[in-house]
Write a structure and sequence with these properties.
Blueprint (H helix, E strand, L loop, with lengths): L1 H8 L5 H26 L18 H10 L4 H15 L7 H19 L7 H21 L7 H31 L12 H9 L1
Helix pairs in contact: 2-3, 2-4, 3-4, 3-5, 3-6, 3-7, 4-5, 5-6, 6-7
Length: 201
């Protein structure tokens, strides 16, 4: 019972939370770095086909939040993954810091809208879409979204669908697989229902 109380009091991010966030972001940052080569393979299929796999670049905030379930981790995760890309010598350079910040914030705001209490696949999908919407802002700032209206709708529509599926539903499925191992029990804050279950015993 004492361990549960201590966990409940520690609502902020603990050292272990930060370590897990950085570790997952490190792995995903490596994936991010090489994912461009994967997305390029789709280019010959049809115009903007690479947008179909764009959602992978938003996996860090949704995956880490679903694992840890605490405020702030979505933003930290995407920023950390962006820095890993930079360390690997990404051609995007320091622009990735702005992308990581705004994309992570886009996902973070969705989780915040649900008061960090909803962890469903649907909420994860919305957070993925939030990150995708966030990516539009630096795209516009850097002139990467200089398209006609129809192309903007088409391009970012594909991106949002991809983000909902890959950063949302895929992240949810991955976390469910991890949950089956019992590892997540050590990562998450104790919920009220856990106390209720103890009181019933």
């Amino acid at each position: 019972m004492e361990a549960l109380v201590n966990t409940r009091k520690g609502k902020g991010l603990s050292l272990s939370d930060l370590l897990v966030t950085v570790l997952v972001s490190l792995v995903l940052g490596v994936v991010y770095h090489f994912w461009g080569s994967v997305s390029n393979l789709l280019d010959p299929l049809f115009i903007q086909a690479d947008e179909l796999v764009y959602g992978v670049w938003f996996l860090a905030p949704t995956l880490v939040f679903l694992l840890i379930r605490k405020p702030g981790v979505a933003l930290i995760a995407e920023l950390a993954a962006a820095h890993v890309e930079i360390l690997f010598g990404s051609g995007w350079g320091l622009q990735l810091v702005l992308y990581g910040l705004i994309q992570g914030l886009g996902a973070e705001l969705v989780f915040a809208a649900f008061r960090y209490k909803k962890f469903s696949a649907g909420v994860a999908a919305l957070a993925g879409v939030g990150a995708a919407i966030g990516s539009l802002i630096p795209d516009v700032l850097y002139g990467y979204a200089d398209y006609e209206t129809w192309m903007l709708i088409y391009k970012y529509g594909l991106r949002m669908v991809s983000s909902a599926v890959l950063a949302g539903y895929l992240a949810y499925a991955l976390v469910k697989a991890v949950e089956a191992t019992g590892v997540t029990n050590q990562l998450r804050p104790v919920q009220d229902q856990d106390y209720a279950a103890l009181d019933e015993k």
